[in-house]
């Protein structure tokens, strides 16, 4: 292809570096994406099998010509004309008629050849469509395999998220009765540490994570405390049962003496 090549559809220049196709009939070049309307499957098939390509205009012209030739005089008309020769005709007349019949037979043979060509052409189109269907089937199977893999990966991610959420829940403790509405975040931390250290003296500030308040209407808030390990939560709940009654004075919290609850 030279740089002087122009697209047979849009009549603009076809660059060498652009994807393009050349029609085997009219020898014109076409932009492969915008002008030929070739699908991804067809382009893949042509590229893999290196098959010749024919533009839509030439395909329509071929089918039209073959269809017109197929409508010529049939062989039954020749039989009718032979049977219509009257008795007593001289040899010259019969010979002349035979020459006409010979010419018509040649035309019929040509028509039959063109019909055969038409059938071969249609058969080729059928085979091409079968190959396209096979490529599409392969692509569908590839997509199904990719979808199956993605579903498996998604399932693993969901399981991991559930494990993370479950682990978060297993490291949380609820404390009620040790706090006031006016307590700052620093005070909440100090009171929570005193309560937990009274129950389990191995607990220190480094073991505490996030502290959140749960407001209760007209009452002191409940505090949610997260610890670094779920084993610490289990130990605190076990020792809480051994401590018995738990209140603010026993934990060293200087407020009115109220009972502290750590729900199991």
Automatic annotation (TrEMBL):
InterPro entries, A to Z: Znf_RING/FYVE/PHD
Entry keywords, A to Z: Coiled coil
Coiled coil: 133-167
Gene3D superfamilies, A to Z: Zinc/RING finger domain, C3HC4 (zinc finger)
Domain of life from the UniProt record: Eukaryota
Protein name: Zinc finger PHD-type domain-containing protein
Organism: Ceutorhynchus assimilis
